[in-house]
Amino acid sequence: MQLVREIEDNQKTLTQVMERINVNQKVPRPPYFPLKRLKDFIDVDQINDEQFSDLVAYYKSLGGVTLEEAVTISLNESMTEYVISHLTWLGDRYGTEALNVSKITSAIYEAMKGNNHFDPPTKSEFKIAMVAALKDIWYGRTAGKARGNVTQRDPWDDDE
Predict the structure, then answer these.
(1) Is the pLDDT of residue 73 over 90?
(2) Under a CB-based contact definition with an 8 Å cutoff, are residues 61 and 114 in contact?
């Protein structure tokens, strides 16, 4: 009986070690990433369950210490600026696609629920983080374009 308990304990330990190894492995980027066209974004909704699981594993491997950071990384790694500029949370009749019903969003949500750095988010918390990340990415990229390559003068760099 003692031997059976030891074997069970060893199996549990081995399972935990294997889970840690699997979590820390670099998961390859899906071949269709980053999405370059709006049609590519729409086509992702046709992926099968195995591809969806691979997508969740990829998003988990990207990391992130906070929910907001993890969501932003996931979006940045998923699609180009062009695609992001044509997305809103709910979509609209003017040509933007809805992010809230896409498989990409579902995969990111599943990955965020499995992140060890923060508590699993509620759907409401996740929505807030996604909308904020979308705005930050979009406004950050357009703000950089508006400024161009203008260097800002730092008064603390003067040699006096």
Answers:
(1) yes
(2) no
